[in-house]
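Lab notebook, design round three. We kept the backbone fixed and only want residue identities now. Task for the bench partner: fill in a sequence for the structure below.
Input structure tokens:
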């Protein structure tokens, strides 16, 4: 049942919004993974980011694409939890479980073992519109465990203006997506985290300069 609802949502809601309201333009689409396991990383300014990335994926992959999302937010009530789990197919992440001695990457690792494609926003949360923050190290820890799993950088521009944090009304704004080539494992978590951030920023540099760095 959920599989058919998810596909119906992708066909009747996701793709029309992406094409008609956001007019998404994509560069480097050929770099998107053709199969799992894989990890897609992107900058994060809006809830639209997840929908944009889902809309870029081939329809046949919709059941194996798993946006990694904070459990405390997306499972905060039963209606949002149902939509997030059954339609968006999120992989809930329990924030703070490392402090309790749990493995924060356990579920993500299991998803990669199943051949799924993860969508991860390494900044950890949405920032101000069109402002990119520092990347955190979770993806590098996964890459250390799975050095052969491709990590594909994506830069998104415009979603933060179409639906900024705290807003609920979608503004039609053209969204650009630039997909880079997979980033090979460099053997060092801190260095790899910086390489991911640099790669996403470099993709953004190929677009018109409406994207500002943060101040740290």
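Proposed sequence:
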């Amino acid at each position: 049942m959920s599989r058919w609802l998810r596909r119906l949502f992708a066909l009747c809601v996701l793709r029309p919004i992406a094409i008609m309201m956001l007019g998404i333009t994509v560069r480097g689409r050929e770099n998107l993974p053709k199969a799992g396991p894989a990890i897609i990383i992107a900058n994060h300014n809006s809830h639209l980011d997840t929908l944009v990335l889902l809309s870029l994926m081939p329809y046949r992959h919709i059941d194996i694409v798993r946006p990694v999302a904070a459990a405390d937010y997306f499972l905060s009530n039963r209606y949002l939890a149902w939509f997030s789990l059954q339609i968006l197919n999120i992989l809930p992440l329990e924030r703070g479980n490392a402090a309790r001695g749990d493995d924060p990457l356990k579920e993500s690792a299991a998803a990669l073992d199943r051949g799924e494609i993860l969508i991860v926003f390494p900044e950890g949360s949405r920032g101000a519109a069109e402002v990119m923050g520092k990347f955190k190290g979770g993806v590098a820890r996964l890459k250390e465990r799975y050095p052969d799993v491709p990590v594909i950088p994506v830069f998104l521009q415009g979603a933060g203006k179409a639906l900024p944090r705290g807003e609920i009304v979608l503004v039609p704004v053209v969204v650009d997506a630039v997909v880079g080539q997979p980033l090979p494992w460099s053997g060092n978590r801190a260095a790899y985290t910086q390489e991911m951030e640099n790669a996403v920023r470099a993709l953004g540099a190929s677009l018109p300069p409406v994207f500002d760095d943060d101040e740290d």
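Keep this in mind before ordering anything: Residues 135 and 197 are 6 Å apart (CA to CA).
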